[in-house]
Each structure stands twice: as structure tokens, then as C-alpha cells.
């Protein structure tokens, strides 16, 4: 029988995307246990974040370009943060 | 034609107002507002003039799109030689004042000399007169607006004024219009105060006439508005969350300067963010944010209008601050908050209200408090000198310091000189987080490399609005670049600097550039203004303006050595976040930037560059 290994990550959705956070979040951050090997793209789909709204996708503060999201696997302790298109000054 | 072709010259020494035709050759070369007013200034003053002397001049100027139906066409600029830096000062404001100047039939107002006693200028269409300001001197910007409207019995008159900070020559005093919009940076309000000029009130009923091709202008402005509305940033993000949405982003990427740039991430960033402004307070169940707001003609409406917690220690005995008012915007929230380690949103809004009320730049004020708090923690400043305990994180100290600085009381006088002079006085000049004497805004250049070069070369001292490469390096506008890389940044910085000069000089808001490129601006300018306004020409105008400002600064005594960053940013690596272990790579970028600019290795535009740009 296969052993299911999980890792703990922080999932953070900001601005208008905070509506997509599952129950139980405080502020814009939620700690989640996910299967080892879960990719950034899977997290985006799992929580139904519209693809075009997942504009600024950061893992530990580093930008993950759209083309890399399907193969970027999350590691234990990673902080995945997502914003819609935003700007300021 | 876009321009009214007419300027008002006010000689404060003689007490006269005179009309002059606008120099249309210069308008053709420098467009308007920032560019054209700077051309007038550099042609009329000695670059080495004492900024606070009567020989300095101050110009309030509109652009050809100011007052028109172009989206965000409400901007005006205050241009002078700045007292904080000794460099060109050019501060831009929204609100409604700029459009009103246009409606009254003027493109700009040049102030020269110094009045023997406090005065204010009243403009009603063609009529302009100086009036006695004895009853206004000592009043705040808010009281001044109210009193002038009352005196004129005209609630729609538009007013720019200085508060006590400008009167007291706080070196980062600003000129406030429409209660909470400001020509904010570089101390333009101190220059206004030095001239004994309290306020300018304008009533214009002429509208804007003379658009070159009205049909084409209607189409161009409508097309451009659609671009703003359809863009997720300008159509949705900015109206709902304002600039403050950046607080968590910049913290996440490890570029939020914290505690005088000791750190690059602030543990309480989320408490002072846009998201926090939308959350209901535990104390009264209300959200901090009340609504958003727009300046004249703006279809973005990024402005924040908030209501402070009435029970907060800063205002519980001061009902005059209980109403809805401007703020917090990102820069103010950062400078008053993270820069000092203060995570109390209500305290930040209180300090912001005082800055609006008395006319002070919250960026330079907040950053100067950050420097003072570091000097305090090092034991160089103490309770006796400051008049209170002032460790990082003290909301009480922040609140007290803003009051003291605005009115020039006690240690507030020293804070009012800015961080450079403060840190020099106490023997630690390297702790001033500034360039050319002006404090940094809210981006740490160890985590956003291009901004280090943009700060070092900004013509008005450290500033994010001369070349906002954050748009590309962090936000992916117009294309995403790596914030930790230095390669390609000299070209990127130059492109942002030149393009921004065009947006500013047209009379529109630089925030449109989150959706627009120059290709969206060009049809609007071309339809409004006589002459050839091709893309090539606009690019050339932007570059010409940048070089003109640079040549003024060089003549004022600045050299390549002043294109620098404090050692903290080039020698002390970031402690956390994606930039951990990194410093800013300015030494690598700067020589390449000079080359890209067509400047000598000493930072002077070459004869060839000057000839190419007609300088």
C-alpha cells in the first residue's frame, strides 16, 4: 500500500482573491496540509482561483511565471502567495 | 491647441500681477506642466540660488491635457529649486486646482520675489490680485480653504495653500490643494512660505477651448478611457484597493524598508495594508476605509477616504479628526508605519491627517522619524533631547513627533530639517536613508535592483515617481523583469524616466501608465495640440526634459558622486526574503546608465547629446 506523504504550506490570497480562501483563514493566510508533489497550478485550480486573476504568483517571494506553474512542486514550509493584477505607487 | 497660451507673472516684491503670452516655441519643445515650467525656471534663475531666498522662483503649471476630458486630466505641477535637496523640485498634484487654473484661462503662474507681508493670490478668470493674508497666517491648510471660501462666498473656488509646516520652513513642506491632495515632495511648500505666499485661490468659468481637432480628441480620449476601464489594474484593482494594495506584495518580495532600512520585511505589514483597511475594527465594528475618490476627470479613482477610530488615543479628545478624510495611501502608510516599525493603522492615519492639515510630505517626515528612532536606539538621541521615549514601533512617539514638526516645536524643528541634516548633526550621516537629501519612498533597492538606479539618478532626489521600474520588476507592467537582476536595468530606468516626463508634462496622472503606454497618450496630445506630436517627438521631448533637469542640477553643483545610495543599501546585505544576502548593484548599473543616456563617465550630457536634444 502506498504511503501518502503530506507537507505543510502557507496559502495566501490577497486583494479580491481573498474570497477564494477556504474557511478557517485568518487574514489572508492559511496553513494547509497538501500532498507532497502538489504543484502551484494545482493549488490555483483546487481553490478555483480564475487563471487570469492569478497574475502575481510568488513562492517564498519569488515570482513563478505562468509557464512554470504546472511543474513547480511545492516543498514543505513554502509560502504560496497570489495577487490579481494590481499596482500602486 | 491644448494650451491657453497665457501665463500670469506675480512679482511678490512689487505686489504686481502681469499677463504674458506663453512661449509657444518652448511649448513645442517641452509640452507643458513639468517640462515647460522647468524650462521657464532654468531660464530665469541662477542654478546656485538659495532655494529659500527671494531670488528663487516658484511656478504652478498645467499641461495641455489639464482640464480637458482626457482621463486624469486634472494634474498640475509646482516647479522650483528645492530646499530639501538643492536640486530641481517638481511636485505634481491631482485634485481640482489644476483644472480650475485652466478654466480661468491660464497655463501657468510664475511667482518671483518675496512679499513684505503674508499675502494670498486670488484669480477669477482674467482678474488676478494679491490680497492680505494676515488673517490666514498661522492657519492650517484646512482652515485656510474654509476661510477663503467663506470670504469669497464661493464654495467652488479651488485652493492650494501651505499650512504651518510651509510657514515654518519645514524643508519637506508641501502645497496642499482640495484638502488632501498635495504637491508633496522636495519642500515646495517651504519655498512658498519663504515668499510669504499663503494660498492661491482660483475660480475659472471659461472651460477649455481651442482643442485642435475636437472630433479626433473625443475619439482619442474615449478610446483611452476604454483601455483604463478594461484593464484589471486601473479598472478594478486601484479603485477597490488603492495604492495600499502594495503593502503585502512588497513585504512578500522582501523589499519593504523597515526600521530605517535595517530590515526589508515588516512583521506587521498586514495590519497596515489595503486588506486591513477593508476589515471591520474590533473597537467600533466599522471599516477604516469609507470610500474611494477621484481627482478631476479621473476614471480610475484610486484615492482613499477613511474614517479614524474615534476612540483611538490620538483623536479621542479631538473631534475635528473624526470625519472621513484622505488616506491612507501606500507611500504614507509605509513611511509612517513600516519605516518606523509602527503597526498601528489608526496612528498612521492620524499622522497622515496632520501632514494633510499642516502641509507636510509624509514620506520625508516618516523617514526622518525612522532615522531619529534609530539614533535613539543607538543612544545618540535620548529622552531629554527628543522630549520623549522614541524607540522603533512607538505609535505615541510618532503621533507626538508629527504634531511637534508641523508647528516647529522643540525637537520638531530638527525633524523638520529632514533626515540628512538630522543625521549629520548627530554625527551619523550614513543613517540618513536619502539621495541628494531627499528620503526614499517605499521600496528597498536591495530587493528591487532597478529602483536603486532610479533613486540614485532621480533629478529630484530619491523618488519612485521619476522612474517607477517597480511596475516592471514586481508587477509585470508592461513586461515582467527580475527584480533581483541588474542586467537590462539601465535601459529600463531610462525608458521609465523619459516616458514619465511626458505623462507629467501632458497634465495627466502617471497611474494611467499601468494601462496606457505612450501610444495611448500620443493620439490625445496630437488631437489637442497644434504641431507634430508623433511618438518619435514625444520620446524626444521626454528625453529632453530629463536632460534639461540634469543640466540644471549639474550647474547647481551636483556631480556623479551625488548619484549614490547610502552605504546601508550597497554594503549591508538584506537579512531576509528573496534578496537575503544581497546589496544593491548600483556600481555595476551606473556607468552603463551614463552610457545609455549619452553622458560622459562624469555624468554630464555630452555635446553630441545636447545637440541632438537641442539643449
Describe the structure.
- The complex is a heterodimer of chains A (89) and B (615).
- Chain A is mainly beta and 89 residues long.
- Chain A has one helix spanning 40-46; strands spanning 6-13, 29-35, 56-59, 62-63, 79-83.
- In chain A, strands 2-1-5-3-4 form a 5-stranded mixed sheet, with no helix packed on it.
- In chain A, a hairpin with a 2-residue loop joins strand 3 (56-59) and strand 4.
- Chain B starts with 5 loop residues before the first strand and ends with a helix.
- Chain B has a 6-stranded mixed sheet, sandwiched between helices. Chain B has a 6-stranded mixed sheet with strand order 8-7-12-9-10-11.
- Chain B is built from 25 helices and 17 strands.
- In chain B, helix 11 (330-336) packs parallel to helix 13 (362-377).
- The longest helix of chain B has 22 residues, at 535-556.
- By secondary structure, chain B is an alpha+beta fold.
- Chain B folds into 3 domains: 6-203, 4-Layer Sandwich (Aldehyde Ferredoxin Oxidoreductase,  A, domain 1), CATH 3.60.9.10; 244-438, Aldehyde Ferredoxin Oxidoreductase Protein, subunit A, domain 2 (Orthogonal Bundle); 443-613, Aldehyde Ferredoxin Oxidoreductase Protein, subunit A, domain 3.
- Helices cover 39% and strands 13% of the residues of chain B.
- The interface between A and B is medium-sized, with 27 and 39 residues.
Layout of secondary structure:
The complex is a heterodimer of chains A (89) and B (615).
Chain A (H helix, E strand, L loop, with lengths): L5 E8 L15 E7 L4 H7 L9 E4 L2 E2 L15 E5 L6
Chain B lengths: L5 E6 L4 E6 L2 H7 L2 H12 L13 E5 L13 E6 L6 E6 L3 H7 L4 E5 L6 E6 L2 E6 L8 H12 L5 E4 L2 H4 L7 E3 L3 E3 L4 H7 L2 E7 L10 H17 L1 H10 L4 H7 L21 H5 L10 E5 L9 E4 L18 E2 L3 H7 L8 H14 L3 H16 L5 H4 L8 H13 L4 H4 L3 H7 L8 E2 L2 E2 L9 H9 L12 H4 L15 H18 L11 H11 L6 H22 L10 H5 L14 H12 L9 H7 L2
Parallel strand pairs in B: 1-6, 7-12
Antiparallel strand pairs in B: 1-2, 3-4, 3-6, 4-5, 7-8, 9-10, 9-12, 10-11, 13-14, 14-15, 16-17
Protein name (chain A): Molybdopterin synthase sulfur carrier subunit
Organism (chain A): Thauera propionica
InterPro entries (chain A): Beta-grasp_dom_sf, Mopterin_synth/thiamin_S_b, ThiS/MoaD-like
